[in-house]
Amino acid sequence: MSSRHWQRRRQFCEVVAHLRDCEEFRLLRCSRMRDEDEPVLATFDQEALARERNYASVNVGVVLAEFEDRRERVLRLLSALEEAQWLRTGLHEEDGLITIESHVRHAISHDLVHLRQIAESLR
Ligand code: NI
Description:
The protein has one domain (3-121): dinb family like domain (Four Helix Bundle (Hemerythrin (Met), subunit A), Up-down Bundle). It is 67% helix and 8% strand. The chain contains 4 helices and 3 strands. Helix 1 runs parallel beside helix 3 (60-79) and helix 1 (3-35) runs antiparallel to helix 4 (100-121). Nickel (II) ion (NI) binds at residues 18, 110, 114.
């Protein structure tokens, strides 16, 4: 297979691994906002994580399954929330005061950015 093929395949793996890790943080942040009063939510260094978890050489099937598992856990958490709990807050290190709701809205546009990126890499 061509080197361009491998290059695109690697990019795809990296994006999926990134989405998996974002979902892991999302789960943690949402559950902390639900359970604690205005927790401080630390940012994470995406580049460092990519190196540490070796995004470039992951098994895409495994990573997809891990993403799915975390996404499902986030959805379970969200669907169990009472309406008022959507407005529970956290203090995000970069974005300041956020709510579970605003965090989820942000997640949706983040998904779209990366979906577009994947679609383009498949052209
Ligand atoms: Ni991203």
